[in-house]
Design brief:
The protein is of the alpha+beta class. It has a single domain, classed as Jelly Rolls (Sandwich). The protein is about 20% helix and about 35% strand. The protein has three helices and nine strands; from the N terminus they run H-E-E-H-E-E-E-E-E-E-H-E. Strands 6-5-8-3-2-1-9 form a seven-stranded mixed β-sheet. It has a two-stranded antiparallel ribbon with strand order 4-7. Strand 2 (about 40-50), helix 2 and strand 3 form a beta-alpha-beta unit. Mean pLDDT is about 85; it is low at about 10-30.
């Protein structure tokens, strides 16, 4: 038995809307969390090791816990670019080489969407934390990023 044209269009519309909702980047994405150390200081990070998680970053987060952050992992070292699209908290970003040595720490200002923060050298990891975290913990250039296991990225 054939369905009336209206029923087919209604099913098609439901299909389109449900697909659009599934693709909505504003929906929270499940992200792996892990305990790491930087210069011997522990913190818990969300891991962004794929293009979608890296693009989403910390957007639309109202706050970040004191010893928490987001660790961006890339397949290979390269000059990394970050911006603060839809990010309402001031952050510091630390760039680390492929051996886990801290190259530099740069500040990033909330909602500063017109400029990019760029690593001065190729980096494999970037760690976003609350503004002042690196200074408060006396973490400086060449501090070591300690991961519980090797990190894969794509």
């Amino acid at each position: 038995m054939r369905r009336p044209a209206q029923s087919r269009w209604a099913l098609f519309a439901i299909f389109l809307v449900s697909g659009a909702l599934a693709l909505d980047r504003r929906q929270p994405m499940p992200v792996e969390k892990m305990a790491i150390q930087v210069g011997g200081v522990p913190l818990v990070v969300e891991v962004a090791n794929n293009p979608a998680a890296r693009a989403r970053g910390l957007q639309e987060r109202g706050a970040l816990a004191a010893n928490a952050g987001m660790l961006f992992v890339y397949p290979q070292p390269k000059r990394l670019r970050f911006w603060m699209k839809n990010t309402p908290i001031d952050l510091d970003i630390g760039f680390f080489d492929d051996e886990g040595r801290l190259l530099e720490v740069l500040p990033m200002t909330a909602f500063h969407e017109r400029s990019h923060t760029v690593s001065s050298a190729p980096a494999k990891y970037a760690l976003e934390v609350n503004r002042g975290w690196f200074a408060a913990n006396r973490i400086s250039k060449d501090a070591r990023l300690e991961l519980p296991s090797p990190m894969a990225a794509w």
